[in-house]
Specification:
The chain is α/β, with parallel strands linked by helices. Helices cover 43% and strands 18% of the residues. The chain contains eleven helices and eleven strands. The strands form two sheets. The protein has a seven-stranded mixed beta sheet, sandwiched between helices. Helix 1 (16-29) links the parallel strand 1 and strand 2. The chain is elongated and about 70 Å long. The structure holds 6-O-phosphono-beta-D-fructofuranose. 6-O-phosphono-beta-D-fructofuranose binds next to loops. Its EC number is 2.7.1.11.
Length: 319
């Protein structure tokens, strides 16, 4: 293999730059030319392709976001659009593509692979919602950012004896919420994997007050309910001041922490290794500390991310 392309797609995640850097430097160490595709699949379709060298990835290891840019591009579901994208790659002579992103990006990689174009997927998303890997690139950094925000909310919530509801990202995966609840000492955890029982939550808050809890933090994943309306209902029922905070896109930014830098560096380099070994339509993961790769079709269809019931139980014990 002589020419490899790399792109980042979907929501950006801290550590994506480290993954691109690892792809570039691993390629160069094997005398493979490497090309950056700007703005995800949209940029691929538009032919935004540039050759990268060592210096293209200098000083990016500590930068959040993705210097390649990213985009959501639902049009890529259309075969005609993908055919045009493959033409763009062929124009430059790029023989294989490494796609760094979430499951939407994996779907793009899978579709290209099905059309005979070799692709490898790397899990780059804060959500930690991808099967076949214990951790996605960006999850740990985002988690740290959330815990820092929850610590701050704890200060003010305890000063005012208030209930704080904190809405966290994660799309339809509760990992960020669950892990942040343990690390941030939240009293109540509401995740999409468990049915939300508002009545039970209110009773628990009242019970907590009877036990002498002066304030409370409720960690909740986005898309479950309108947290501002929930705060009003809790305030009415408990007669305790309640505030909702939506952490929003702040969660996605910031310099990647060491864990994500190392994970992304390993994954980026591993992706090049498996392409050189002739593999295609694979996605990379980390399992018990080791790099692994799976069939991307299986990953998207059959493999399920296990829910961390152990952590959920732990959050109950530590309440
Ligand atoms: O997938 C990453 C993520 O940040 C999700 O947690 C969130 O639901 C979504 O992206 C937000 O997307 P956008 O940045 O397009 O609003």
């Amino acid at each position: 293999i002589k020419k490899i392309g790399v792109l980042t797609s979907g929501g950006d995640a801290p550590g994506m730059n480290c993954a691109v850097r690892a792809v570039v430097r691993t390629c160069l160490s094997h005398d493979i030319e490497v090309f950056g595709i700007y703005d995800g699949f949209a940029g691929l379709h538009a032919g935004k392709i540039e050759q990268l060298d060592r210096h293209s990835v200098s000083d990016v290891i500590n930068r959040g976001g993705t210097f390649l840019g990213s985009a959501r591009f639902p049009e890529f579901k259309e075969e005609s659009i993908r055919k045009e994208a493959i033409k763009q790659l062929e124009k430059v002579g790029i023989e294989a593509l490494i796609v760094i992103g979430g499951d939407g990006s994996y779907m793009g990689a899978l579709k290209l692979s099905e059309m005979g174009y070799p692709c490898i997927g790397l899990p780059g998303t804060i959500d930690n919602d991808i099967a076949g890997t214990d951790f996605t690139i960006g999850f740990m950094t985002c988690l740290n950012t959330i815990v820092d925000a929850v610590d701050r909310l704890r200060d003010t919530s305890s000063s005012h004896n208030r209930i704080s509801i904190v809405e966290m990202m994660g799309r339809y995966c509760g990992d960020l919420t669950l892990w942040a609840a343990i690390a941030g000492g939240s009293e109540y955890v509401i995740v999409p994997e468990k049915e939300f029982d508002e009545e039970k939550l209110i009773k628990q808050i009242q019970l907590g007050e009877e036990k002498g809890k002066k304030h409370a933090i409720v960690a909740i994943t986005e898309h479950i309910t309108d947290v501002n309306a929930l705060a009003k209902r809790i305030q009415e029922r408990t007669k305790r001041e309640t505030r909702a905070t939506i952490l929003g896109h702040i969660q996605r930014g910031g310099s990647p922490m060491a864990f994500d830098r190392i994970l992304a560096s390993r994954m980026g380099s591993y992706a090049v290794d498996i392409l050189m070994a002739g593999k295609s339509a694979r996605c990379v993961g980390i399992k018990s500390g080791e790099m692994v790769d799976h069939d991307i079709v299986e990953c998207l269809t059959e493999m399920k991310r296990p829910f961390r019931q152990d952590l959920y139980n732990l959050s109950d014990v530590l309440y």
